[in-house]
Amino acid sequence: MKFFSLLLLFFYSGAQAQKIPADTSFSVYTTYLKEKKKRPYISIAQPLAKGNFKTKRNITYAKYPTGNLSLDVIYPKQNNKLLPAVLFVFGGGWRSGNRTQNIPLAQKMAQNGYVAITTDYRLSTHAKFPAAVYDLKNTIRWIKANAIRYHIDTTKIAIIGFSAGGQLAALVGTTNDDPEFEKEKINDHTSNVQAIIDVDGVLAFDHPESAEVSTDPNRKSVAAIWLGAELNENPALWHHASALNHADKHTVPLLFINSSTPRFHAGRDDLIAKIKPFGIYSEIHTLPDTPHPFWLFNPWFEQVSSIMLNFLDLQFKKIQIN
Q: What is the distance between the alpha carbons of residues 221 and 211, in angstroms, rounded to a whole number?
């Protein structure tokens, strides 16, 4: 564990360097300690010290009074053609976590011919919805503005999110060209993506399968804190923040990777039913007997990365997976 901590410090000293102190209620290590009590066989999926990739760290893409937002780019060492890009969105209840969580998966993508970007976005401690959506769309604009430098094919960009990040990824990907979410632009590039991977992120807040409403009258849910209102106070807001309510004939292909906890894919089946008449491709992979943050740990890390790569290759490289 000491090696893992030192490696993170080496790679990411400067991640989430905001003026407002970061909420550290969610971290990979504390989650590991919790989950190991139930599953003693797990281990943390660690970042690689080196590999067939290069890393550009701590690139500032936007500045706000609350602090700068930064990103990291992990890309193949040797490349002479345009490559697809994948944007990783971390989870943590819209209030905690940071972009370093996704570095091991980003490295895996780079090892397999993708340019991978991990990014900051404003958490609920810094700004309410839809600020995080604006930030992620601005990250996509940054990717397109810097496509030549990193040999990125701007017609092949996927957004991948986990938990709260999965909810955000789905919302970003189902609101291509939606003027309601096209604000605070950092440049004139579009923020459109061509594929979505949602890992245990809810698709609808105001849904029978959802558990985002607090059952304690004296305590707000993390969703209500991020959205700025309880469901009964502003149902239209909760509706607007749900990807299910934006999915239509323009929705891009989707991959869902889920734990064995049903509430983390609330609205998923309804969304798939909504886009099916338009022939839009979708996949579901539910990993049995898995905790909610399974993607952060072995023995599931390799399976998750394999599922992702199969989907991305099918969409972007037109490789048919048997």
A: 9
